[in-house]
Amino acid sequence: MGRSDHYTDFNQQRKAAWKPDLEPKTVLFSFLGIGLCFIPIGLGLLMASDSVQEKVLDYTYCLRVPQLDDLTLAGPASSYLTCAGYSAYGRCVCEVSLPLPEGLQGNVVIFYALSRFYQNHRHFLKSKDELQLLGQVGPVSSNCYPFDYRNGSTIVPCGSFANALFNDSIQLLSNNQPIPLAKTGLAWSGEKALFKNPQGHALNESYANYVAPPAWTKNIWDLDPETAFNNGLENEDFIIWMRPSAFPNFRKIFRRLDQSVGPYSDGLPAGNYTFRIEYSMCFTSQLLCSCLQRRRRV
After folding, report:
1. Measured between alpha carbons, how far is 184 from 255 in angstroms, rounded to an integer?
2. Torsions phi, psi of 126, nearest 5?
3. Burial of 283 per CB tally in 10 Å (0-12, 13-18, 19+)
4. Which of 27, 50, 171, 276 is the most exposed place for a label (fewest CB within 10 A)?
5. Sheet holding 271-279: strands in order across?
6. Interatomic CA distance for residues 139 and 129, integer angstroms
7. Where is pLDDT greater, at 16 or 135?
């Protein structure tokens, strides 16, 4: 190849092209035109945001409700009045009131929020086994250490990310009666494809030789006893948790009001409600109850 081959119109960027002459007047009118186009979009988003009713309840230091099994605990445990301190000693239940004098009309969604929890930390983010999450149980990725083995058995799902699963148990009550909340249909369809259970056997048989992460309070095949298909790695609470947050203060969808039940077809009627929480996760937590007229978000 000769030296002259490099001196072509294409290599020297002399091909015909549109080269606008950007004068101040042209740039000014272009910005004004683009700005005018975005004004109705901004007004629409503002109106949609104003239509949201949001209630925020911080239960980090909620007062614990005494339980029968508290009698078996002695010593310093009895001195803790909040679940934040008492949860280290055993099961702790607290209640937070939610007065709704005007009710919540429309689609009602419950989120949980955590503060100062860095899901986007590099070591935390990579601490998982992608093949294991796809249902291929076998050798564990070294990324999962130190949550790869427990008492000589393989942990499924392994890694720090899965071990830190949000596992507070939360009920919404009215006159001490539970309100129906949907546990499925919450995760995105695209992310569901990234989580699969082993095929060919029942979940308790597939995972018989494996153990759950040490911070979990349930077996992997028993995460949702009421819904058979919402267990194992396909559990929607687990899938939503494994979606990394970009910021240390974040919220994730937890439940949606089941509006197929008659009294709640139009939302939550006016009245006094109570959140009953079994405190398990030792982080700053909030409950957010939101109602949307157009979109399902918090």
Report:
1. 8
2. -90, 0
3. middle
4. 50
5. 92-100, 271-279, 169-174, 177-178
6. 10
7. 135
Contact 223, 237 (CB under 8 A): yes
Alpha carbon distance 86, 79 (integer Å):
8
Sign of CA dihedral 283, 67, 95, 109: positive
Alpha carbons 241 and 171: distance in angstroms, whole number: 19
Strands 250-257 and 267-268: unpaired
Q: How confident is the model over 241-287, as pLDDT tens digits? A: 999 999 999 999 999 999 988 889 889 999 999 999 988 765 544 55
d(CA 25, CA 83): 64
Q: Which of 5-14, 75-84, 112-121 has the lowest mean pLDDT?
A: 75-84
Beta partners for residue 49, in sequence order: none
Element (H, E) at 30: helix 24-50
> For residues 130 and 71, what is the distance between their CA atoms, to the nearest angstrom?
44
Q: How far apart are CA 134 and CA 199, in angstroms?
A: 11
CA torsion sign for 37, 42, 45, 50 is negative
pLDDT score for 253:
95
